[in-house]
Design goal:
Length: about 110
């Protein structure tokens, strides 16, 4: 049995800004050359939406494609301003055929 990798390292990010930097820069979190898509929204948002991964076509913003349009319509229907929502993904880059259970066992759930 291989030990779980320590993806957060010996000095994990201490606040949201540090976490976002780590999320965008840590080599172990995305395949080489994969386009990472940062979370969006304010730290004090009323609601957080967490999705498994960015959409395949995301380039400049998380959920900028069809899933994002559906989410925006749902938020409007609930009377929530999209600016009051923090939107993040469990994976920093689109990962075809991602095995989320295996990734969790490999330390990603930390």
């Amino acid at each position: 049995v291989q030990p779980r990798p320590n993806l957060l390292g010996d000095s994990p990010p201490g606040d949201l800004a540090a976490f976002r930097r780590w999320w965008g820069e840590e080599p172990a979190l995305a395949p080489s050359g994969a386009l990472r898509i940062a979370p969006r929204g304010d730290a004090g948002a009323q609601v957080m939406i967490l999705v498994p991964q960015p959409e395949e076509g995301d380039r400049t913003m998380l959920l900028e494609g069809p899933q994002g349009r559906l989410l925006a319509a749902m938020l409007r229907a609930m009377g929530l301003d999209e600016g009051a929502v923090y939107i993040a993904s469990a994976l920093p880059a689109f990962t075809p055929m991602a095995d989320l259970a295996a990734l969790a066992k490999a330390g990603w759930d930390d």
